[in-house]
Amino acid sequence: MGSLRRRVTVWLLPPLVLLLAVNAVLSYRSALEAANLAYDRSLWAAIKSIGERSFVRNGEVVVDVPSSALEIFAEGAQERVFYAVIGPDGALLTGYPDIPVPQPLAADGLVKTADAIYKGDAVRTGAMRKRLYDPAVKGDDSILVLVAETTETRTELARHLFFDSLRRQLALIGLGVVLVLVALGTAFRPLLRLRDTIRNRSEEDLTPVAPQDVPSEIRPLIDAVNHHMGRISAMLEARKRFLADAAHQLRTPLTVLGTQAEYGLRQDDPAEMRRTLKGIVRSISSARRLTNQMLALSRAEAVNGLIRERSRLDFADLVREVALELGPLALRRQVDLAYEGLRGGLMVEGNDAMLREMVANLIDNAIRYTPAGGQVTVIVARESAQAVMVIRDSGPGIPPDEHDKVFQRFYRSLDQSETEGSGLGLAIVREICLAHAGRVSLDAGLDGQGLAVTVRLPAAH
Amino acid sequence: MKSVRHLALALCAWAALPLAHAQAPAGYPSDYAALVAAAKQEGKVRIYAATDTAAANPLIKDFEALYPGVKVEYSDMNTTELYNRVISEKAAGGTSGDVFWSSSMDLQIKLVNDGFALTYKSPEASKLPDWAVWRNEGYGTTYEPIVFIYNKRLLKPEEVPQSHGDLAKVLAANPERFKGKLTSYDIEKSGVGFLLITQDASLNPAFWDMAKAIGAASPRFQSSSGTMMERVGSGENLLGFNLIGSYALQRAKKDPGIGVVMPKDYTLVMSRIMFITKTAQNPNAAKLWLDYILSRRGQTVIANQSGLGSIRADVEGELTAHGLARTLGNALKPIQVGPGLLTYLDQAKRLEFIKQWQQTAAARK
Fold this sequence. Notes:
The complex is a heterodimer of chains A (461) and B (365). Chain A is of the alpha+beta class and 461 residues long. Chain A has helices spanning 4-52, 67-71, 152-199, 219-266, 270-300, 315-325, 327-332, 352-369, 425-435; strands at 54-57, 60-63, 81-86, 92-95, 111-118, 121-131, 142-150, 311-314, 336-341, 347-350, 375-383, 386-393, 439-444, 451-458. Chain A contains nine helices and 14 strands. The longest helix of chain A is centred in the first third of the chain and has 49 residues, at 4-52. The two termini of chain A are 37 Å apart. The radius of gyration of chain B is 23 Å and the shape is globular. Chain B has 365 residues and is an alpha/beta fold. Chain B has helices spanning 2-21, 32-42, 53-66, 79-92, 105-113, 164-173, 175-178, 191-203, 207-216, 225-234, 245-254, 283-294, 296-306, 321-328, 347-361; strands spanning 44-50, 71-76, 99-102, 133-134, 138-140, 144-151, 182-185, 220-222, 239-244, 258-261, 267-270, 273-276, 332-334. Chain B has 15 helices and 13 strands.
């Protein structure tokens, strides 16, 4: 990522230098143009005055080069000058031979100028075609007047103009860079102040950063940080509560166990002692179940890495297998457990063990809360891009106003407090479901009786 | 005693210092000593000149005294010869002179314009008038007014023309008296004569009227100024115009029969142009020579020993730009060192002008 200052510099300076280079080329061209425009005038004047003094006498073209034509170049300018007048037949009438003729020539009477090389020197040449309007002259009666001058003065003027503007541009850019640096310094000051504020906080201070001292551009960042901190502090809070709850929950079976053991010790009757031991075994199994559930919950939490081990698996097969495994329990409880729906072919991306845990929890819950003679139906289906599992039972159900609360840890419906259970089952289900980007919801069961739990998971393609 | 010897030593050291630096005069670049050393390495400078050896000798002597070890090889020839020699030597690819120096300003300028000259900014350039330097290649070196001469014994004071207008008037007033008694350059044969008459033509709006008056006097044209001065001195001719002042004034010193007039309406001023050739074999010695000629020391010799007239305003003497400006002021018309001089070298223009001049001014026998 690097420093923001460096990024700004890297993004600002090379384009600026590039712009400067482009501008330099353009300004050199325009300087040259300006110089040519200024100096071409003397070329025009010389050509015109030679043209004016060219005429026909007795059928012969006479050229009387006026002094002024060449003296134009003497005033201040220090250029070498070459001229030529070419007759209608293409022969040199007077002047220097082989001066390059600018092409294409302008209409007769107008001067065309161009850059050229003459005798190895860079020159600016001007040419004008001049008609003589004399029938005595054979062929095309126009002569060609050429004047060329060396270009040192023009180039020097252009260079002077160019360096002048370059100097100014460089100064501007230098000033711009200084301004940008100063502006960057000022712009980053609130950020640095913010950094110091956060650095100086106490370790346990998770309160939001006050957004009013912060430039509006980084307020979204601060909001995100605050939001994240809010989540962290909520999570810390939940952990604390969970720890307290877990301790509390584990104390209850331990107290029961203690009471049972003490009761057993006081008994002399072996039958009574045996009965007490049975009770102790039941309590131990209940405590084991509780700790297993807590372990499962911990594993299901997204922060734990286990849930991320995923594979492609058949959800319908998985649910059917779990239901089969729980068949004996249903039989023991005299609950009619039925599986309806797809036989395989419903693929999802997920963690096999976790999904099994989730399904087992739900079916187990349904069986446990359904009185003898009742029934539990497990349905698996595909709904567009979702794998849907519905588990209905004919148990007592959960009042709608408690639907949200039952997913909380250690929550138990008041009128079901006598039923064995940890109060963690639905919390685990919800955790696993969320980890798989799914949803879990509660509804009334068959014919408005009992409970229907619906789990929706995204199906794999 | 001891301290006296110390003082003597110190004095010797102090005296030696300027000697060591004498070759880089004040105002010259600090590395000028290197140029002098390089020139000495070359050992000589070859000069092609259209200036009498007699006028050049004092300069050569002084230069060789100033830079011992650099010899001057001086070849004197006339202006056309000089021009043709340069062209033919260049065409043959052979060796040529290092410095060209000629009074034929137009031909010199043509050589510079055609790329024969080396660009060299002399440290003395800033001391010259603007019109005398072209492209840092061609340098005007002298200041020579163009004058009338007359025979003092035979011409009455009121007959002596004081201006070009006077000349036309005097001739027209008494055509019989001046018939065959007027002399000037044969412009077909003399390059300088042609240069001067064409300068008259472009400067003087009444030139062709004057030419008519001259023609009416059946003038005698000569190709050298020596003959003209001789004839005026002897009385064979009464009046001569367009003579180079430096020659005329020197002649007048020896020959009391000759009078010199600087025309009051305008006095053309000619300046011998010097340039270093691009192909110079001794370029450093050539630069040294050019700088010397333009220097105050060289110009003082030019004004007082060569009699050619100094172009520098800071040189005192008989014949200097400074001195002439005091008497003639704005009437002085120096011929600009620049491409304007190319005009009358134009083949067509030259023939046309000579034709017209001969029709108007040549002797009617």
